[in-house]
Write a structure and sequence with these properties.
Elements lengths: L1 H10 L14 H4 L6 E4 L2 H9 L3 E5 L10 E2 L4 H7 L8
Parallel strand pairs: 1-2, 2-3
Length: about 90
């Protein structure tokens, strides 16, 4: 988790990253309303959306998903800049 947060701080400075252990529902640990969750596990994204969050699927496959899909974290910038995703201010 520490390495992931350090990576985000380098690649996407200014983005608030909160590490949540796998055993805890992310939407129960962090206020999801208007916040983005990037995850490769669809049930986490489903619950996040149910609680008012913005789900983004992380996947390297060509498969289609219900949510916006990225295969590189830098693609988040494109999603936001093209207004495909809106977050709370």
């Amino acid at each position: 988790m520490k390495d992931k947060i350090e990576y985000f701080n380098i690649v996407l400075p200014g983005i608030n990253v909160i590490g949540v252990p796998k055993t805890i529902e992310k939407a129960d640990f962090v206020d999801p309303i208007g916040a983005v969750l990037v995850d490769d596990f669809t049930p986490n994204l489903d619950y996040w959306k149910e609680k008012g969050g913005i789900p983004v699927k992380f996947s390297m496959s060509e498969k289609e998903y219900e949510y916006p899909v990225i295969s590189d974290l830098l693609e988040l910038i494109k999603l936001f800049s093209k207004n495909k995703i809106k977050v709370k201010e």
